[in-house]
Automatic annotation (TrEMBL):
Organism expressing this protein natively: Streptosporangium subroseum
Record-given protein name: Signal transduction histidine kinase
Domain named Histidine kinase/HSP90-like ATPase: residues: 320-401
GO molecular function: phosphorelay sensor kinase activity; protein dimerization activity
Domain Signal transduction histidine kinase subgroup 3 dimerisation and phosphoacceptor as annotated: residue spans: 215-276
GO cellular component: membrane
Membrane-spanning intervals of the chain: 37-56, 63-81, 93-122, 134-152, 158-179
Residue stretches in coiled coil: 182-209
Cited Pfam families: HATPase_c, HisKA_3
InterPro entries for this protein: HATPase_C_sf, HATPase_dom, Sensor_HK_TwoCompSys, Sig_transdc_His_kin_sub3_dim/P, Sig_transdc_His_kinase_ChrS
Length: 404
């Protein structure tokens, strides 16, 4: 079977948090890194005025009320705000914003210095709601200090009041539109990443299926060219023996064919087994293959190493072992050779396997066997190259070259 092609882990569902900077994808920063920016702004916008007011000259009771209101916004955020933002729970978010406004109102009516907190509170509205709903909450937040200004100031300036309120609302609207655009881009980017991950997993799956299909095609050809033909010959010989008065000759040929078929079956099973590395080096594995051929066929088989031998990546070793197995199996079945030379050539960035026999040879352009096609497909899938030089009566040389 083909080398196992590990499928990548199926893409997990990406959590699209529709807020600025929230793109939760495996290649980007985690969502908490983006959320931390807005949390820091909320911390500064609430703790800074609370600290200034505590150190100010207001009555102690007013200072305590203002500080408690502002500081209470932080635990409210962690209990309701953050879970609502992460889960995009609008109902829970509405409760969070409502309680936030209720905490902000009494502090605003005590002192206008708390308006600095709006820098941290307004973004919270856009993080919980879409732009339109967020604008309503922002307007309410900004009207609170405006109304308190009208009540607390003995002679309020209507022009200043309207100007400041209009500027804050317009700024909030522009800020909200910007945040909505960033949010949309973040979601689109997250969806694109998810699609790319799905496509990559699909490509890996199809690649594995293609390899399995190619190997099944190779096995079908091997069985057709060897075992099926052998069994057909055996049947024909036995039928011929039944028609003869002296079947000894045909039966002997049938037994010989059956033995050859058994050897073919064993060779096919050996080719399907895992590459015979067994923790040894590529050179040692090739030596064992050469020794096995010499013992089985009684021919001269040599093995040489050119260049400095070194460990290779496992996929390259498997391809070279498979190529050697297939090449030596072809020598065993078809070459009628008396000598086989196997060599490995280690280059600076490449390694090549060469198998040469002095057998009958063949015409590479006219061959219809599945073995060479399957071998070439396996080598090319591993980004290697394969060359076959042969001619009738001139022997055969096979060269497989792999880049590390």
């Amino acid at each position: 079977m083909p080398d196992d092609v590990p499928l990548e882990e199926p893409p997990r569902r990406i959590n699209h948090v529709g807020r600025p900077g929230y793109v939760t994808n495996p290649a980007g920063p985690h969502i908490w890194d983006s959320l931390r920016i807005w949390e820091i702004l909320l911390f500064v916008a609430t703790l800074a005025p609370a600290t200034i007011i505590l150190l100010g000259d207001l009555p102690v009771r007013d200072r305590v009320i203002v500080a408690v209101c502002l500081v209470s916004i932080l635990p409210l955020y962690f209990v309701l705000g953050r879970p609502a933002i992460m889960a995009e729970n609008r109902r829970r978010g509405a409760v969070y914003i409502a309680l936030l406004i209720l905490l902000f109102i009494p502090a605003t009516f005590i002192t206008s210095d708390v308006t600095f907190a709006l820098f941290g509170l307004c973004p919270q509205c856009f993080m919980v709601f879409p732009t339109r709903q967020a604008m309503i909450a922002v307007i309410v937040l900004n009207l609170v200090p405006a109304i308190s200004y009208l009540f607390l100031e003995p002679e309020p300036s209507w022009f200043g009041f309207l100007t400041v309120t209009l500027i804050v609302i317009v700024f909030s609207w522009v800020f909200g539109v910007w945040m909505e655009g960033v949010s949309r881009q973040s979601r689109e980017r997250a969806e694109l990443i998810e699609e790319l991950m799905s496509s990559r997993a699909e490509v890996s799956r199809l690649s594995a299926e293609r390899g399995a299909l190619a190997e099944r095609e190779r096995l079908a050809g091997e069985i057709h060219d060897t075992l099926a033909q052998g069994f057909t010959s055996i049947i024909m010989l036995i039928q011929a023996a039944e028609a003869r008065s002296d079947p000894a000759r045909h039966l002997a040929l049938a037994v010989q064919t059956a033995r050859e078929n058994l050897a073919e079956a064993r060779a096919l099973v050996a080719a399907l087994s895992p590459a015979p590395l067994d923790g040894s080096t590529l050179d040692e594995a090739l030596v064992r293959l050469a020794d096995r051929l010499r013992e089985d066929m009684g021919m001269t088989v040599t093995f040489t190493v050119r260049g400095e031998s070194r460990p290779l990546p496992p996929p390259i070793e498997v391809v070279l072992i498979r190529a050697a197995q297939e090449s030596l199996a072809n020598v065993r079945r078809h070459a009628a050779a008396s000598r086989v030379d196997v060599s490995v050539v280690y280059g600076p960035e490449t390694v090549a396997l060469e198998v040469h026999d002095d057998g009958c040879g063949f015409d590479p352009a006219a061959t219809g066997g599945y073995g060479l096609r399957g071998m070439r497909s396996r080598v090319e899938q591993a980004s290697g190259s394969m060359r076959v030089r042969s001619s009738p009566g001139g022997g055969t040389t096979l060269i497989v070259e792999m880049a590390e």
